[in-house]
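Aim 2 progress update. The chain analyzed this quarter is reproduced below.
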Amino acid sequence: MLITKYIQSIVNVLSANENKLNELDAAIGDGDHGSNVLRGFKAILEQEHSFTSESLIEKDLMLCAQQLMSKIGGSSGPLLGSAFMALAVAFKGKNTFTNQDIAQGLQMAFDRVSQLGKSQIGEKTMLDALYPTIATIKNTPTLLDFTQAAFAANKGANDTIPMLAKKGRASYLGERSIGHMDPGACSIALIFSALTKVNEIDQNVKPQINSTNTSKHETNNDFKLLPITKPVSILLVSHSEALAKATLQFASEMKTNDFIFEYVAGIENGKLFGTDPQEIKLHLQKITIEAEALIIYDLGSSKMNSEMAISLLPPEYAQRIKISNCAFVEGTIIAVSSNNTMKANELCEIVESQVKVTK
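Predicted structure tokens:
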């Protein structure tokens, strides 16, 4: 299958460079970027049986997006996942494509990542490696020849070394972030490098009709929206299941009304730190059936994943949800003890008026 060849090559290259990416991240972040991104692409390969036999590109790219969002902790999951979702949209209904189509898809991916991460080129992010590839691919004469794109992405990654980080954990270092390559930009360069290693690609891609394979995350049929009749539901989104569970148990003692109070925390069934947009989405669908919802999160990437989850919901669900920028434990206690309203924005104002923070 067409896409499997590319993903396998990406896994091979990321595996060979896992330590390098972790070292780059250790200098300006948590030190686990390489392991996290590799885990996401390995998870795609584990779902190889779900790819369409004749590579319906749109569906396969959406499956890739779901795996990346679910398996990669931190901000890289939603950012890479949203990039693959944008590519899926760009290739919708296509069984043949040109380099112009690929460039357009990458532009859509760039725009989505920029919007989600509230970032732009020059801020020491993966965008600095992604952006130079777009024009390069437009001007590449041979279809699926990523050689020049890989050079452009590599140069973009190297150009992040003298930059001052303005987004993510690296931005906390201020001028100390200067002199280090951004690990996200490096991983984008490595991905394009991997694409150049795929040979003998079958370019005659045909769509498969009436596929019966459907991800458990692809349907809203189990969640029927009803009129609002209950106080605001509260959802905690945390990187740590232990933290979320303890906060929920402690704050539950303050409940004075009957409302839904849940948490989503960790990835790999809570075994690893991180947050999963798909799981957040499922919880939001459930808890907004009869109520609006307030999300309280612990770290910036938790907010990013929550925003991604909301973007995956139909508008009628999304308009019922509010995200609070507040201290995690204190905000939760105030929200639970003050929850006597049916409007999420009202509860959010009460919480943020007392413990609003900048995350």
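The longest strand covers residues 233-238. The chain is about 50% helix and 5% strand. These observations will guide the mutagenesis experiments scheduled for the next reporting period.
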